[in-house]
Description:
Elements (H helix, E strand, L loop, with lengths): L5 H14 L8 H23 L4 H19 L7 H43 L10 H38 L4 H15 L1 H12 L3 H7 L4 H12 L9 H29 L1 H9 L5 H40 L1 H18 L1
Amino acid sequence: MARATPLESYAKRMGALERRSLVRAYAATELVDTALSLYQKVARPVLKATAVPMILCLAGLTFYNTFVLNGLFTTRAGGDLRIEATEIMVTMGTALGVALPLLALGLGSSMAATVSKLAPLVRGDLTDPPPVGGGAALRTAQTILLVIAASCGVAVLSGIGILAGAYAERTGAHNVATDAVTALSWLSLATVAWILIPVGLCVFAVAPVVCLLESAKPLASLRRARKLMRTARGQSNAYGPVVGAITVLLLVGFGLGGSMEFILGAFGLQSLIERTFSPFGLGELLSGVVQALPTYVTLWFLTPIWTSVVTLLYFDRRVRLEAYDIRLLTEDILAKQGARGR
Length: 342
């Protein structure tokens, strides 16, 4: 076998570098632009693969629109605050126990499918990615639920504290302790709770990606994500790209969802379906499905884009903090040397 010329060796070396060219550090605006370009390459197979799993999101949204919202704004208490507070607590518990897990399962399936397509493309892998199993989607859903709990948990607890205080006031069981809990709940809801939601989303943004690519457990994924996102080793935190991506996606989501709601309202589809199927007992349910469609389509389109951003951000942080690009190139060199040795 003829020995490679220096020019051929140089070309092979440059080819290996080019294959790993996406594994590097990015500026904030460059990261979002690159993530959008990568998404365009995998959009068709990802959207095709996630259309059916995202129906779980549609089911959760329909359940929320049909049962939870009606439970929040309708009551059989007849002015009795004790019963009203109990109804609200039951409704919130139903939303947290049924609608939220369905939504998380749909989002987890979408993120798992997107990461499985996108991560090999970023790393420049030469082999096809393995198929996504149900276990990966379930772990991702659990991680998403933990991120929601870490971000919105204080707001939920504040709401429960306010309802408990109102219940105690109505039943005459209030005292200094219940009054203090009510006051602290209102204070946290008005201040800390709303601040923690965006902070939690920034701190734990890459947690689902960590869960998938490092096969970490949900709680370990949150700890690992917080470590990657914070300021360390002379590198600033990575909250800027997350805030920028959330802002852009919110604007696009409001535009897309609002347009669909306008079209559905212009044709009166929701009321038409409700009138048509009410004699069969399905009018309210199908009306809830139509009401949830704009949100479902918006999540179906935008969740892979968000996943693309946080996946690229994950590699960016590993390059900055752990020299992940050098590690990959070292593995390539060792693999070639091992192949020559055989």
